[in-house]
Structure to design on (621 residues):
């Protein structure tokens, strides 16, 4: 009974809206219902939890390690004896309280994915100081040699936290439901610049001893720790408007800034849809090509792959997507990774609304229609039990959390009408800002604030089927694109043998190319593949989306001339979504393809981020 009372005292903290002035927020509430339990953390936040992380780290490129201290502020029940943190391979040398008194600690058994519990006997201490270093293979950290950068003269380091990688460089409670503010002081070689996903207190850095510079950062808002992100390299900056801008290597700044020149307009459009942008600046860091994702929504500083810089703005929907996470994901956060659709599905829906606001209904329909194709493909490939939105904490099948999730929200929009839906969604983000969210709580909120007992509407929406059942409910809305319908007509002609030279592809967007290439019959003769390649220059395409789709088709037919193109492409790009299908296509060709895949991977591996390297290694096992 006593424990229970204390526990509820700990969690019944006031829910604060973002204060208008800067300054640290009070701790955010945690959820304690069974559906909010995160099986991927060792933490027991109801007993003791981290509320603030202060990092003081030095990046050592020679040993590929970060070393220094993490100082954690703790909120704990009065009777708590220990705090449990998440630890993936940290090399800890000492742990003390805030006054420097050593504390007892131990590390439990290591799980290959979750890592190990780090248990610290805190007694009355409410601050701990951990002195440690990371290992060279820390899962969050990509250490790139100069050859893998655009400038080819300086090394590069970047982190990728989502989902549970940050425990490999930050000793904290690495769970999306345990929000923490943070500060950091990062020391780097003085010819490099450090940037992080928070306010930059020292944009130019400050001297930190021989050959070193220190950069300091602050995030006053409480964020899930997977959003703490760092990059170090030869990084320049170009403003887009007053609150947005672009960071990338100096030689890439012109191209990058031109491609992303709509970023400020995107933020304005997003605010007009769903309320104030609450994070101060929205900058984009375009990384070297080994960045493993399209983008990552690190607050104040979205990380993005350079493969979106295609010269025609046809892939900046990725920026709209990461921006949308500033609401869905970063403000209202999936409580556990089983609820990832609350981040990704909401964001994919919201992203499309930003695209529509900037580029019109047809452009938005084109992107939505392609997502529908992806949804159908995933539904076909997955086992039924893998197709529930509320699902496996290690991820839904393929992109189902994105595309089934966004289709669900679009279906609600079409059913209740846009005006009513937008008003609801806007109030939803406000009511749950800076808090974790579960599927069950979302449905509860929807029933209380949108459906309000309307039985006919409840019947029409089929909410529980959408969230908890496999497959796609019958009310799913499919948005069709006229642009892609034209491509389908061209495909019909091509498949009937029409000459390729007659097709005018000069103004095709990446999405039209993808519909075209993916719509070609999978079985092709070497002659036809040669015609395609020479008509459209596919093997040499510098658009990584086109190159990837082409290689999948060509390799699926054991088309030998494409092997050299794969050999060049696969080591040069680390974006999972573009290279995994090519490796998979090689694997599917057994005795012919596996040796090629293994040979290329052996050479490419050291250039990949650990996230990509381990995904491909597993595929080729
Ligand atoms: N948050 C994700 C990236 C992510 C997902 C990292 C899962 C780790 C685990 C990001 O917002 C994202 O969805 N990126 C997409 C781009 C988007 C336009 C679909 C990607 O990387 O392809
Ligand atoms: Zn996303």
């Amino acid at each position: 009974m006593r424990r229970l009372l204390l526990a509820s005292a700990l969690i019944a903290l006031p829910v604060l809206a973002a204060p208008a002035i800067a300054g640290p927020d009070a701790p955010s509430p945690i959820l304690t219902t069974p559906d909010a339990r995160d099986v991927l953390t060792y933490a027991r936040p109801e007993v003791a939890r981290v509320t603030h992380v202060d990092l003081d780290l030095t990046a050592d490129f020679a040993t590929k390690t970060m070393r220094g201290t993490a100082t954690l502020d703790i909120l704990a029940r009065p009777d708590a004896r220990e705090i449990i943190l998440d630890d993936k391979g940290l090399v800890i040398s000492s742990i003390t309280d805030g006054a420097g008194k050593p504390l007892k600690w131990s590390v439990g058994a290591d799980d290959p994915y979750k890592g190990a519990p780090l248990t610290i006997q805190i007694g009355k201490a409410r601050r701990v100081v951990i002195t440690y270093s990371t290992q060279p293979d820390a899962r969050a950290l990509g250490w790139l040699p100069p050859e893998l950068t655009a400038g080819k003269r300086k090394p590069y380091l970047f982190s990728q936290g989502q989902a549970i990688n940050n425990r490999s460089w930050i000793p904290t409670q690495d769970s999306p439901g345990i929000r923490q503010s943070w500060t950091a002081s990062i020391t780097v070689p003085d010819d490099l610049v450090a940037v992080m996903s928070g306010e930059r207190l020292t944009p130019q850095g400050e001297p930190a001893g021989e050959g070193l510079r220190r950069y300091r950062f602050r995030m006053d808002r409480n964020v899930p720790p997977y959003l703490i992100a760092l990059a170090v390299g030869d990084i320049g900056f170009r403003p887009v408007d007053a609150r947005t801008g672009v960071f990338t290597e100096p030689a890439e700044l012109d191209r990058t800034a031109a491609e992303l020149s709509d970023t400020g307009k995107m933020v304005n459009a997003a605010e007009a849809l769903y309320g104030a942008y609450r994070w101060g600046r929205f900058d984009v860091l375009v990384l070297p090509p080994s960045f493993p994702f399209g983008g990552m929504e690190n607050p104040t500083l979205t990380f993005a792959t350079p493969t979106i810089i295609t010269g025609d703005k046809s892939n900046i929907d990725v920026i709209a997507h990461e921006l949308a996470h500033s609401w869905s994901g970063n403000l209202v956060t999936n409580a556990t990774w089983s609820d990832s659709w609350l981040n990704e599905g909401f964001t994919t829906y919201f992203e499309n609304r930003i695209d529509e606001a900037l580029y019109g209904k047809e452009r938005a329909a084109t992107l939505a229609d392609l997502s529908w194709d992806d949804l159908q493909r995933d539904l076909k490939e997955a086992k039924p039990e893998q197709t529930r939105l509320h699902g496996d904490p290690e991820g839904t099948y393929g992109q189902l959390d994105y595309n089934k999730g966004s289709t669900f929200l679009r279906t609600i929009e079409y059913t209740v009408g846009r005006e009513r839906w937008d008003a609801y969604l806007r109030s939803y983000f406000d009511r749950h800002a800076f808090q974790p969210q579960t599927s069950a709580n979302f449905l509860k909120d929807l029933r209380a604030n949108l459906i309000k007992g309307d039985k006919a509407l409840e019947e029409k929406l089929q909410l529980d089927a959408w969230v908890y059942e496999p497959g796609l409910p019958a009310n799913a809305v499919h948005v069709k694109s006229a642009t892609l319908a034209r491509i389908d007509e061209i495909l019909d002609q091509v498949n009937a043998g029409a000459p390729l030279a007659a097709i005018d592809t000069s103004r095709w967007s990446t999405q039209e190319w993808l519909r075209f290439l993916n719509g070609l019959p999978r079985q092709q003769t070497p002659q036809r593949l040669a015609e395609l390649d020479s008509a459209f220059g596919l093997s040499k395409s510098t658009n990584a989306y086109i190159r990837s789709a082409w290689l999948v088709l060509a390799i699926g037919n054991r088309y030998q001339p494409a092997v050299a193109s794969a050999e060049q492409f696969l080591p040069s790009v680390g974006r999972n979504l573009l290279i995994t299908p090519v490796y998979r296509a090689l694997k599917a060709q057994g005795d012919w393809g596996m040796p090629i895949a293994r040979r290329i991977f052996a050479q490419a591996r050291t250039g990949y981020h650990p996230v990509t390297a381990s995904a491909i290694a597993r595929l080729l096992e």
About this structure: Confidence is low (pLDDT under 50) at residues 1-21. The radius of gyration is 25 Å. Residues 321, 325, 344, 347 surround zinc ion (ligand 2) (CB under 6 Å). Residues 501-619 form a domain with the Serine Threonine Protein Phosphatase 5, Tetratricopeptide repeat fold (CATH 1.25.40.320).
